[in-house]
Structure formats: structure tokens, C-alpha cells
Amino acid sequence: MYYSFTPEQTQFRDVIRRFLAAQSPTVTVRQTMASSRGWEPALWQRLNDDLGLAGIHVPEALGGGGFGDQELGIACEELGRALTCAPYLSSAVLATQALRNGATPAEQESLLPRIVTGATTATLAWMEGPHWSGCEDIALCARSDGDAWRLEGRKSYVLDGVTAERVVVAAREAGRDDDAGIGLYLVDGEASGLHRRALASIDETRRLAELDFDGVTAQRLGHPGSGAAALARTLDDAAVALAHELVGAAQALLEASVEYARLRMQFGRPIGSFQAIKHQCANLLLELELAKAAVYYAAAARETGDADSAALASQAKVQASEAALASAREAIQIHGGIGFTWDQDTHLWFKRVSCAAVLLGDAAWHRERFLALTEVAA
Amino acid sequence: MSDIDERAVRAEVRAWLEQHWDPQRDLVSWRELLADSGWGVPHWPRAWFGRDLPVALCGAIEAEFEAVGAVGVARIGIRMLAAATLLEHGTEQHKSRFLRRILTGEDTWCQLFSEPGSGSDLAGATTRADFDGTQWTVNGQKLWTTSAHHAEWGLLLARTDWDAPKHQGLSYFVIDMTQPGVTVQPVKQMNGYASFNQVFLTDAHVPPENLVGAVGEGWQVAMTTLAHERRNADALRRWGEASTRAGRIYDEERAEIANVMAPYTWYPQRTGRVDLALARAHDTGRLADPALRQELARLLMLSRSSEWLAQRARTAREAGRPEGPEGSLGKLAASHVARQAAAVHTAISGADAMLAGADGPLDGLIAEILLSVPATSIAGGTDEIQLNIIAERVLGLPREPRLDGGPFRDVPRNPER
Lengths: 378, 417
Hints:
The complex is a heterodimer.
Chain A: H1 7-23, H2 26-33, H3 41-49, H4 69-82, H5 88-102, H6 105-116, E1 122-125, E2 141-145, E3 148-159, E4 166-173, E5 182-188, E6 194-199, E7 208-221, H7 227-263, E8 265-266, E9 269-270, H8 275-304, H9 309-335, H10 346-358, H11 363-377
Parallel strand pairs in A: 1-4, 2-4
Antiparallel strand pairs in A: 2-3, 3-7, 4-5, 5-7, 6-7, 8-9
Chain B: H1 3-20, H2 27-37, H3 58-68, H4 79-89, H5 92-104, E1 109-112, E2 128-131, E3 136-143, E4 153-159, E5 170-176, E6 182-187, E7 196-206, E8 211-212, H6 218-239, H7 248-261, H8 267-270, H9 277-283, H10 290-318, H11 326-349, H12 365-372, H13 383-394
Parallel strand pairs in B: 1-4
Antiparallel strand pairs in B: 2-3, 3-7, 4-5, 5-8, 6-7
């Protein structure tokens, strides 16, 4: 499983790819990204009704497909390849994994089934400032108020934060400055005192929001003291999922570049016959295949509970981001002036990749984390 | 291949070894017995020292050999490439004359392909072979010839028709390396070692029966040799490790391996020695440097993902699926790993990176790494050639227009030396 896919997994990939080619071509992506909510409920419902994507990795007992991290990865890779506008990373990955990692079994049973079917969308709010070093960056305050909790503070860079019907919030219990004071709290998207503001993102295919919490009523999830570990695990789950999305995007970009280089004639020959272009394409393929090897390995490691899985998640994120950024940069370069125009599709992936590269930690941050973890293991 | 077949074959080879294996035998007589039994090269044809068994079963058979410590047929060096080429393109006479002594290790072979004027462009060879009605006379110069200094036989690619297009004017021969017309000189490399040779062919002779394949079909035959070179690269590394067991036959095998491997003690260093990086960064106190930490992380990630990429290719091959692009990308990845490793070793060493020998870090090992790594992106096909192959065969990008069509004598080429 570390080095290959089963025939069933390959078939699953083919089904999603065909579906998205038909239902989410770039003309649709362009229409959807110009809409106010940023994703189409009808397409989201079909992704879940027809393909069961939002719960593919969730146990059947909770309404999911009962598959694992590899299938989740395949779904993310294909969605990244097609650049589909959908609250997948926010709801199916970040919020769902936060609940699976941090909520009690009873809470999961009450919350997950509706998220798994796509009937409800959710997201996770953990970032406050532009840099993330860990739980010490969480200042948003949770105060006990009878049976409930009240949240005070601000979260930013919240994926699909304006449209999400439920928000899982990483907050710090009042008066606690250690990691044990970090908890996951559930908030209703329409709760009073919650002010949501859309942020203008360079990637219009995925929406970001800033959330102000002014005494918002919240439900604390999971057992006290377990929030920090659950959050860390969730962010690694999401990093691996996002890495899959990035290799999907890189694949799409490379294919578009190669196709263009085969057809575009200059100086009486296809530009793809010049070594300056063909070597660039071959280098991109090498970087992409190395990234895939790392990303697929990381997914398999999460499924088997490999002791190395946190370092592997960081490695996957680094290599996928770097491969995708290189593919995006060179795709525009190979397309020349036309690649810098709005009508040509390359910029859509360029923007997605540029955002995904910094989301959940940039390459330098993950390299440092990888080395720190590797150093301890060695 | 079913488990039953594998169990039956394992039982059969175990029984044969029980009856015949004796570590006190001398190496050649044991290998003669082994060659004649077919267990030395079980995937070869039954008529020629094999058993017609699928390659997939060879691992199981080797495991049975390892279990009792039985020595295998001679495999290191160019000999297996010669054998594979002769099995595919040789005459009955070639096979009966050469194959058995290849397996026993009595004959050593070398490959006379590259020339000073044709490196990446192997088909541009200008070493000539002229036929006078009774024998071929060979004149020219070959380069990068591993083992030429102790080889009995050479696989020679030479031009026999200067009016034919480049690839169609070549022929393939087996040449006697011990004759007076063949002079072998070592080539000293930038790292101080002399692992390869240049071979001067001055009115050297080849009898007509030593032609392999037809006149003018040398390129196709050479392709067979090169295909096996790539395929064997993995296995050869493993066979280059001598057994540590005690006994006469092991002593003889160790001496054989030491003799062949002697010029290549620096080979591990050309990979960049990633294995040393983290521990050395720690031991030298450099591990706290954030810039070094970034580069070290890059190196370890690149190295690990290269291994996984190679493992993906092996897994696909073993499952009988098409290999995908992984195989052809591995060599390029190795170049990147080696270069990044050299950069990291330099950063860890600081000013000590200038020092060699006993004055240098790790008793000169780091200097040897820094001076050996440049070989990785050249040997066995340069990075630029690998990029062309990937771009054209994997990505389907168009070939570059060529300027070497038409009769070879009109093709622009390097000046004669």
C-alpha cells in the first residue's frame, strides 16, 4: 500500500476523474468562483450523493464510506486536478477530522452523519495571525458559562468561513497558558455575536474569512486537555490531504504545458522540440513524481499509524507545494504571453497553488518541523 | 506464478544443493558443476546452462543458495551483459565457446563502446573495422572501458560502412583483448582514482566468426547490451558484496570480488553519502544552524522520496504492470541527491571542506565525496540525455531536428586526435 494502489483504488480515481471532467470543467469553475458563495450547492450534493466523497474516509457507522486516508487522498488529488470549487478541504477534511480526532464518540455520532452526507458544511478555525508556530499562537478565549462556553476573540484565514454552518474553533480556556488549556469548541455559523467577513483571496476558487467572536455561545468538544493533540493530528491530516490536492494541480499544470509545447509552433518547429522547453518539462515531471512518492507514502503511513507519520506529513506538504509551485511558474512561462492572460486557464491553478503552498504551513516551516522530528527519531 | 510452483522449485534446488554443495571445493570446479546443473542461471534456456524458469522465481532460488551459503556463478563486471547479448544475438558457436567460461569466472569481459569522440552520441563511433576477405582489422580508440586491463574478451562496436547512415554502418564483434594490437591504459580521474581505461586498437584482428549479428546491425545488438546494463544495475550492487563466511571457496570468491572491485572503492562516495549527513551535522555542532537545517531537510526528503519512487517502480514491475515513468526518473533523482548531499557536506564542514587526505574531515572521506559526486550526473548517460529520454518517451514531446542523417562520412564530427 505504501508503493502502489489497488485496482479498486485506481477505479475509484477513474470514476471521480470522469465525473469532474463532465461536471466541473474550467468554464464551470470560472462561473462558480464569480458567485457570491464560491461553491455550488447542487454540485456539492452530487459529489456526495453520487460519489460519497465527503465521508469516504469516515467509518460506515457514522454514515461514511468506511475507506481510509488513501481514498481521501485520491479524492483530494482529483479535486485539485479539476480545481473544483467545493467546501471539501474545509468540511470533509478539516472539520470532519477535527471531530474525529477531538470529539467524544457520542458527539461524533450526533454531529458527523450530517456533515458526511454533505447536508451540513463545517469548517475549522485555528489561525489568528499570519504565522503559525503551534498552540501557543492561540489567544481566542473560552470562558465557562454554566453548561456552555463563551468565545471571545478573532480567527482568520478560515476556509469557507462565511458559508460554513458549523465552525470548530480552537480556543484557549481563560487563565490557562499551557497546551492543556487548548480545546476544540463547536459554534453555529449563525450564532449571535459571531461576525463573519469574507477576505479577498488571490485564489477565488476557495474562500477565506475572518471571524470575530463576541461572546459567542459554544459547545466544548472532547475531553478536557485533549484539544492540542487533536488539533495537531487534524492539521497533519489536512496537510496530507492538501498535499494530494497540490500534486493533482501540478499534474494538470504539467499536462497543459506539455500539450501546449507540442502544438505551439515558433521558428518553424514545435517549441516542445527545443531542449530549453523539454528539459524544463522533464524536470517538472521528476519533481512531481518524487512528490507523489512522498504524498502517497504519507497517506499510507497515516492509515497504518506509522510512528513517523507527522514527519511524513510535513515532507508530503513540502514536496507537493514545491512541485506544484514549480509547475505553475513554468506553465505560465511555457505558455508565454498568453499564459499571463485572464482567458487562459493557467492562472486559476497558479492562484490555487500559491495559496495552498502557504496554507497549513509553508515549505520552510515544514522542513524545520520535519528535521526536528527526524532528529529526535535518529 | 503460483506458490505451489515456487515451493516445488525451492524443494528441488534445496535437494540439489544438499547433495552437491561443498564449501571446500575450488571455485571454478564448483561453478562448472553449477553451470551444467542449470541452477546457476535458472532463467536461461535449458540448452544453455539454464532451466527455462521465469525470472520471478530467481529470487526464491537465490534465497535457497543464501540459506546454505552456496556460492553462485560469476556475475560481477560486464560478463552478464556479454552473456545476455550472446544468448540473444550470438551463434551456437559463440554460445558454446563463451558462455560456460563466463559463468565459471575464468574469462573476464569488457565493453568497447564509448570513444573520445562519441560519448552521449554512441552511434557516432569512428573506430573502424575493415574486412580483407579473411579477417577484420580494427583501428581506433575506446574510452571508459571498465575492466579492460584484466579482460580476456571485449564487446566491440565498430564502423564497417562509412556510406551508410550513422546507425546502419556499425557492426558488433567479440575481440580478443590479449592480442598485441590492443593496448590498455588507465585514465586518471579528477578524484585521483583510475577506475577506467582507454583502449587503443592498432591493426587489431578479429576472425570473421566473431561477428555478432549481421554486418551493419551492430547498433541493434548494442541496444541489447545496454538494456541489460540498465536492468542489471540494481542486482550488480548486491553481487559486489562478498560473503564473510570461512572456507576455501569463499576465500577464492572474495579474492575475485576484491580484484574486480578494487578500482571502485570510491563508488559509494559518488552518491553523496546521505547516510553521513545528519550524524555529522550533529557531531560537529552545526545542527543548530537554521540555514543548514533547511538544506539538510531538503536532502533527507529528496533521498527518501527517491527511494520510494524506485520502490514504486519495482512494485509495479513485480505486479506485471507497466513501470510508469519511475524507472527512467531514478537516475536523474540520484544526480539531484548527490549534488544536494555534496552541498550539505560542504556546509557542515566549513573551511574544512578545502582539506583532503588525513587533514580533511573524516580522514579525507568528505573530500572524496566532493570530488566524486560530479560523476553521477554523467556516468551511464548524462542528465541531459535522461531529460531528453523522459521528455520524448514519457511526455511525448517532439524530437529535436537532427543534423546527422545521410551517409556517415558526411556527418560533422570531432576532429581526429
